[in-house]
Amino acid sequence: xxxxxxxxxxxxxxxxxxxxxxxxxxxxxxxxxxxxxxxxxxxxxxxxxxxxxxxxxxxxxxxxxxxxxxxxxxxxxxxxxxxxxxxxxxxxxxxxxxxxxxxxxxxxxxxxxxxxxxxxxxxxxxxxxxxxxxxxxxxxxxxxxxxxxxxxxxxxxxxxxxxxxxxxxxxxxxxxxxxxxxxxxxxxxxxxxxxxxxxxxxxxxxxxxxxxxxxxxxxxxxxxxxxxxxxxxxxxxxxxxxxxxxxxxxxxxxxxxxxxxxxxxxxxxxxxxxxxxxxxxxxxxxxxxxxxxxxxxxxxxxxxxxxxxxxxxxxxxxx
Length: 319
Fold this sequence. Notes:
Elements: E1 31-51, E2 54-72, H1 78-91, E3 95-101, H2 102-105, H3 107-113, E4 129-136, E5 139-147, E6 151-161, H4 195-203, E7 205-207, H5 226-237, E8 243-248, H6 255-277, E9 284-288, H7 301-307, E10 309-314
Parallel strand pairs: 8-9
Antiparallel strand pairs: 1-2, 2-6, 3-4, 4-5, 5-6, 7-10, 8-10
Helix pairs in contact: 5-6
């Protein structure tokens, strides 16, 4: 969720002390609406406009903090909201990497490529928003500002790049996994078809419910997803199989926006399949259904979360 996108820096090593979030002076009356943080994650920082079907970004790894602020009874333009924050960054020694407004950013496509906190905490008017990315050493900041008829909205994403290493296990006495069977042994025979494969072939589709998308966001969350791993294994074992990833959304926003958003979610999952799991691009495609196929009510938060999903649809046929 955000008016903030990415750049590319990957590091490995010990996890240092987490740097404190950037301290910016917000406009009078600004109230914190939402906050999220992670001590070790990846983030794409937008450093160029949306062109064609992509935009320039930096891929960062380290600790991340996202904070959304709301100004009620706001009379400021988006430039008036952004300018004082930009000045503070410059005074603090930050270099402005990229700055844009609405159409110069790329409009709809740019906004939905950003990883922002969800509405209503961070509202973005597709006709009036501004974005800024800045850097100071290993510290990166993304600012997104927008407004509604009554309120102003600001999101600050602070990314501190540092070495990342696996966390210590919570339970060091946990039982180790048994060693895999020796090649040629009875238990090392071709494994039975997995439950995932059975469901995909018997019902024609499988909901990839472990995928992580916030409301209004198209970027797949960081980390490993078991459903994608199982789907990749199925496609590798069945090179003639063809699958369409179909994105679905909740009912927040217009149908056109949600169809476009759902397709981007599906494409984000498709790209993860190709780049992380080595799936052949010809075996997998992406489409979007918007909110036209709900599996729960959109009147509740739980229902909306259930409706935000990607499904793998098996399109292969047998003669």
